[in-house]
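Trk system potassium uptake protein TrkA
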Amino acid sequence: MRIIIAGAYTIGTYLAKLLSRNNQDIVLMDESSENLEKFGSDFDLMMMQAPCTRLQALKEAGAEDADLFVAVTPDQNKNIVSCTLAKSLGTKKTVAKVDNYEYTTDTLVQTFDKLGIDSIIYPEMLAATDIINGLKMSWVRQRWDVHDGALVMLGIKLRETCEVLNQPLKDISGPDDPYHVVAIKRNGDTIIPGGNDELKLYDMVYIMTTRQYIPYVRKIVGKEHYVDVKNVMIMGGGRTAVRAVKTMPDYLDIKIIEASEDRCTKLNEMLDDDRALIIHGDGRDLALLQEEGIRNTQAFVAVTGNAETNILACLTAKRMGVRKTVAMVENMDYVNMAESLDIGTIINKKAIAASHIYQMMLDANVHNVRFLMNADADVAEFIPQEGAKITQKAVKDLKLPAGVTIGGLVRNGEGILVSGNTTIQAGDSVMVFCHNIYLKKIENLFNK
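Tokens:
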């Protein structure tokens, strides 16, 4: 598969590194030789210094027979134009990153489709969705709803109060239990577990269940004492914060602390429905936090442009009694550090955007792909075709690789947890968990 990525910036370089692990034919384009040099030479791909809006450069990059063209430069106009040009040359699928929320509305998406742009990515909206999911349940690090909650994936840090520690999964998460443990992060390693694996103290565990059994999962992992989020304090009033506030549930009481006075004025204009109280100040100022009621706040969200600031602010909030913290960490080098410091939910826009782009390179009918950022694993929603290999046998007879497990499926709108005796049907939405290296390989099971 030939993939052209325009823009050697955060999303482009992260995506290029991600795709290079699958031995794809990748071209990374950028006008700046400095950007390309920063990327390094340790990855199996071609680097090309050229503007992505020049027709001849696109031809030299191979756009005429490319499978996927991804435009993720900082200039949304260049992204739109280059995608249109690439499609006109013969590229099969195109993706453009934009910085304007209005471009994601249904009407404009249809217009872009006519121009040859198959997908529009607005990272701030994707990040805002993850922030809101992280706030819905204070005891969960990560939540992902499949088909409006027919299935729910929960990422949970296990503490001493967990009832199911040190027991084989076959005894606590069998075919008749209303949840499945689909991945475990432990001491830097990711385990796609089997029946003999056990949950240990301080594991980060990923559980698949259905909506009605969320209270049951909450009980067995010992999180019933966590208070639900009603008050949220946000540090940083950038675009991610604005998108999050505009889509947060009405029951949340929201305060935004922003260091720039000019930005505070703009926030008051943008959020003119009194959706949030705007406070001019430094979110690291302990006196200010106390004055604004940090000790009575259930959640603290740090989304400034500085990862160190966000991590430090969340640590401060935790010391002041806030149980739920969310930090935007754009520097991938800091993600593991934030996890080791017990920062709650970690948001990385480029990883989220890359997840959405990655699904477009898979041949099977894939609706969603998510990288479990704190774990070396992927989760994908596959829909098997009529006559697909995976529909021919019960799951226990499919001989799935050791690093692959099927967590659940949605059939006719109903979430169903998968056991060894389950037979998958064409048209089911099937949730597959696997180590990164397997995702491209197992898609063949879902094709004829």
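The domain at 127-131+227-351 is CATH 3.40.50.720 (Rossmann fold).
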